[in-house]
């Protein structure tokens, strides 16, 4: 039995997946955990898939999470959640953003955005569906959707004992600290 926990964050370029992973890693390191993080950008600047893997525990030897090994999967976009569902361990949890970003083929009319993705995810995993885009817009900054999802992740992992507000302060631009702290608390409540 290992004390290492595995978190996989997936989304589309520009959604702030890597920033959320940096906040997570920063807070975990400050709390005394050994942390390894790996990121895959792909064609992220052109709206492609982005994934980050964060592993933490007493001693972590590798940053890589294999298929079926993620304790928690955080999907910043519906289709990415479905794409990475196989990485979740059978008893794992998924926090999925009820948000769609059409890919280039969908935008060009070559195909349609798949329907019933959320229902498919719920039928295969312990899922928390968050309308992070709506929450972020209500806070006045749609770009803080990633920190709303981060707050939901903290709640799903039971990591509320860590000083996440300081980790947020350490990782976001000074002018966005307040809205990001509000986004974190909104994510906890969601």
Task: Give an account of the 3D structure.
- This protein is α/β, with parallel strands linked by helices.
- The protein is built from 8 helices and 6 strands.
- Strand 4, helix 2 and strand 5 form a beta-alpha-beta unit.
- InterPro entries: IorB_Oxidoreductase, Pyrv/ketoisovalerate_OxRed_cat, Pyrv_flavodox_OxRed_cen.
- Keywords: Oxidoreductase, Pyruvate.
- One of its GO terms (molecular function) is oxidoreductase activity, acting on the aldehyde or oxo group of donors.
Describe the SSE topology.
Elements: E1 5-12, H1 17-30, E2 34-40, E3 49-57, E4 70-75, H2 78-83, E5 88-97, H3 104-107, H4 117-124, E6 126-130, H5 132-138, H6 145-157, H7 164-171, H8 177-189
Helix pairs in contact: 1-6, 1-7, 5-6, 6-8, 7-8
Summarize the structure.
Residues 13-189 form the Pyruvate/ketoisovalerate oxidoreductase catalytic domain. The protein is an alpha/beta fold.
- CATH architectural grouping: 3-Layer(aba) Sandwich
- Number of helical regions: 8
- Total strands: 6
Class from helix and strand fractions: alpha/beta
Label this structure with key terms.
Indolepyruvate ferredoxin oxidoreductase beta subunit; 6 strands; 38% helix; 190 residues; alpha/beta; pyruvate; Pyruvate-ferredoxin Oxidoreductase, domain 3; oxidoreductase; IorB_Oxidoreductase; oxidoreductase activity, acting on the aldehyde or oxo group of donors; six-stranded mixed β-sheet; single chain
